[in-house]
Design goal:
By secondary structure, this protein is α/β, with parallel strands linked by helices. The protein has twelve helices and ten strands. The chain has helices at 10-21, 32-41, 80-87, 105-114, 156-165, 178-199, 203-208, 212-229, 236-245, 256-262, 269-282, 288-303; strands at residues 2-6, 25-29, 43-47, 50-54, 57-59, 70-73, 96-99, 121-130, 136-148, 171-174.
């Protein structure tokens, strides 16, 4: 199966690199400075077990002349609109589009453009970043890719995708509850982002501050109320584990939004927090902490010019 990885940043670079290293047929769709870096230096993965150097197959949008079997879409959520036109020539009647984006709105956008059949659910769990040299740095051993048909079925095509991802150097998980899994990923991501960005510190620093534990739990509960109103089926064990993770006093965990903000980069404020605010308003919910975090990041975004 031919795989087109759209985006070669921390997420796309890591999972695409692992698939390529495992002998899968992988091509990266790249542009601009990232394309130059990969052409001159190759794709470098810095992992807890050592460094991997690959010479990836690269392509630009103008060079696409065939459909791919799988499109692994790993762009930032604010880059989705421009990516739609880029990938259009690569989408055939049986192409599987697996988006690994934050939030949920991208499912609507992709379905509107390419149809219900083309788009499956997907998410990843990984702590990774690009260093100053453009290398993908895996910050912990967690590297999980989850995917599934949105209706929960085990189709032939999802079985082939699962076989492709197995034994490729990361944890691959075929899910029959992918939409609920995506809600849970959003709960974790948005809570982590709101807590760290609004308080300007890591999870442990917030938890150790006066009333920091109460603040973190209140943020989680606001976001939980929003996603439940939109259809999330509660899993109490997951909620308890997430709450415990985000209130650890010795944790150094931060969110990618927090790291991006500290480096002056654009952040996914609208997609990670703004869409939740909008869902909450439609449901008639009052979410002052979530709104405060979103406003804080919106001010930051505008200050960047």
């Amino acid at each position: 199966m031919r795989i087109l990885v759209v985006g070669a940043g921390a997420t796309g670079g890591y999972f695409g690199g692992r698939l390529s290293q495992a002998g899968r047929d992988v091509t990266f769709l790249v542009r601009g400075k990232r394309a130059d870096v990969l052409r001159h230096n190759g794709l470098h993965l810095i992992t807890p077990d050592g460094e991997i150097t690959l010479q990836p197959r690269l392509i630009t949008a103008a060079e696409i002349n065939q459909a791919y079997d799988i499109i692994l879409l790993t762009v930032k959520a604010f880059g989705l609109e421009s990516a739609l036109n880029d990938i259009a020539p690569a989408v055939g009647p049986e192409t599987i589009i697996m988006p690994i984006l934050n939030g949920m709105k991208h499912l609507e956008v992709l379905t509107a453009r390419f149809g219900e059949h083309a788009v499956i659910g997907g998410l990843c769990k990984i702590a990774a970043t690009l260093d100053e040299q453009g290398r993908v740095v895996q910050l912990s051993r967690l590297h999980e890719l989850t995917y599934g048909e949105r209706d929960g079925s085990i189709s032939d095509r999802i079985g082939r995708l699962d076989a492709l991802c197995r034994d490729a150097g990361f944890t691959a998980r075929l899910s029959t509850t992918i939409i609920n899994d995506m809600w849970e990923k959003w709960l974790l991501l948005a809570s982590l982002g709101a807590i760290t960005c609004l308080m300007r510190g890591n999870i442990g620093q917030v938890a150790a501050a006066p009333d920091g534990d109460l603040f973190a739990r209140s943020v989680i509960n606001e976001i939980l109320a929003v996603i439940v109103s939109a259809g999330y089926q509660r899993r109490e064990n997951y909620i308890a584990d997430t709450t415990a993770l985000l209130t650890l006093k010795d944790s150094t965990q931060t969110s990618s939004m927090y790291r991006d903000m500290n480096q002056g980069y654009q952040v996914e404020a609208d997609q990670v927090l703004g869409d939740l605010v909008a869902i909450g308003k439609r449901a008639g919910l009052v979410t002052p902490l979530l709104c405060a975090a979103y406003t804080h990041l919106a001010v930051y975004q505008r200050s960047r010019g």
